[in-house]
């Protein structure tokens, strides 16, 4: 039987299940709660305490997942009875699940869910003053760093784009592209994936070349799909470029949204791969990256970090 992942934070206790929930334990899938039943708070909490990050759903029941994720998003954005932390957990779970589904199976349906998740994440952050800080404060599992990074970049890049007053349709594409910009990374050989946790300034020329391939792979996964716009494809292809011409595609000019994505990507890559705080990272970042991004953009970025309580 084939399975697809579903983040545990999207599932609520005492909710009637429209699919079977499995967990992956000791190299096998075990049914933890079945369709039509509910999951007790105790049973759910037990998994959270054991740091289980995801359930698995049989692929043949996957048709019920989009409605389920849609409802979780609506609850995160509109429900009146829940706190900011639960909203962040829900939207994070939906966004992470969407990224994983896009990475395994880049269909129009999974793309549409990713787009909705990106909008949901923006909404939760816009309506809840401490939500971005909460998102950044959460420690991801080691195996989850790329997904955590993608969510961080989506949150930061869209805040920065709003500051720059970029058009709404551009910000929507930017938010969606940010969530899936690194889906090509997991397709690299293991030793090249490890470069993700190193700052680009410490990579050897050979590592840089091999690691840089993931931008093309990410874009290729999506190219020629009728539902992917050229803007999204180029945002993804150029996300490791800066104005120095030293990126994988040797670009020296970027559109404002491409520069936003690239800057937030470079900043967050440093952040997730060290134990330093955002303000410590920013100290070195602003020195190292002068000349690689427009000064005004770096200053705007500093304002966003201050506004969101990260500096
Ligand atoms: Fe990347
Ligand atoms: Fe990235």
In short:
This protein has 311 residues and is mainly α. The site of one fe (ii) ion has 6 residues, from loops.
Q: Which key phrases capture this entry?
A:
311 residues; mainly alpha; Hypothetical protein af1432; two-stranded antiparallel ribbon; 56% helix; globular; binds fe (ii) ion
Q: Beta-strand percentage?
A: 5-15%
Instruction: List the ions, cofactors and other small molecules found in this model.
Output: fe (ii) ion
Classified in CATH, the superfamily is: Hypothetical protein af1432
Q: What is the C-alpha radius of gyration, as a whole number of Å?
A: 19 Å
Q: Which topology does CATH recognise?
A: Hypothetical protein af1432
Helix count equals 13
Compressed to H and E, one letter per element, the order equals EEEHEHHHHHHHHHHHH
In spatial order, strands of the major sheet run: 1-4
Query: What's the CATH class label?
Result: Mainly Alpha
Low-confidence stretches: none
Number of domains: 1
Number of beta strands: 4
Shape: globular
Structural class label: mainly alpha
